[in-house]
Amino acid sequence: MPEQEPHSRIEAKSSVNETLNHRSVELARHSETLENRETSERRVEQAAAEAKEHAQSKEKPAPHEKPKEVSHLSATKTAQQKSYKQTMGTVQTQMSPLSRSFSKVIHNPGVEKASDFIGSTVARPASLLAGSLFAFIAVAGLYITAKFVGFSLTGFETIGTFIIGWILGLCYDFVKVMVSGKR
């Protein structure tokens, strides 16, 4: 047994050494992390101090002068309009003369407002879809009935059934908006 005792002591010492080495590596990592935090905190404090100095160094308006109020909305709106006109000009220069003149008519502010109004009231997608589907189904039924019974169609059937379907679609849209509150 005396031979095994030194061997077990050596193993115990080596496991203690490994544990100590592992602990020292962990401590070194932990200290690096703390140093990094302290460094970043110092940087933040320095940046805050610089920003404060910069803000204080700005000239303040005299007490009797009223600072200019800048309307961000109007500045943004005018910038958007300018950008829109510039983009339209660039695109229109690349069009054929006929397309360019048509684009100028279509993108006229009055025409665009009228188109938006019609699109949001009369020409709603649901009402147009309902009118088209109703017209297709009703005219198909009328055509089949006319073939078997033997009477002729006048041509107004398609327009009439579309108008009926369109009105039904508008009513559906109206009820949907009233119930859900969403457009």
Count the strands? 0
In which range does the helix fraction lie? over 70%
- Approximate strand percentage: under 5%
The helix count comes to 6
Largest sheet geometry: none
> Mean pLDDT, nearest integer?
79
Measure the end-to-end span.
92 Å
Coarse structural class? mainly alpha
Strand/helix succession: HHHHHH
Residue stretches low in confidence (pLDDT < 50, at least 5 long) are none
Q: Radius of gyration from the CA trace?
A: 40 Å
What general outline do the C-alpha atoms trace? Answer: elongated
What would a concise description of this structure say?
The chain has 183 residues and is mainly alpha-helical. It is built from 6 helices and no strands. The longest helix is centred in the first third of the chain and has 54 residues, at 4-57.
Would you mind describing this structure in some detail?
- With about 180 residues, the protein is mainly alpha-helical.
- Among the domains are: about 40 residues; about 60 residues, no CATH class.
- Helix 5 runs antiparallel to helix 6.
- The longest helix has about 55 residues.
- It is elongated.
Q: Keywords for this structure?
A:
mainly alpha, 183 residues, 0% strand, elongated, 6 helices
Layout: helices, strands, pairs:
Blueprint: H1 4-57, H2 72-93, H3 97-106, H4 109-121, H5 125-149, H6 156-180
Helix pairs in contact: 5-6
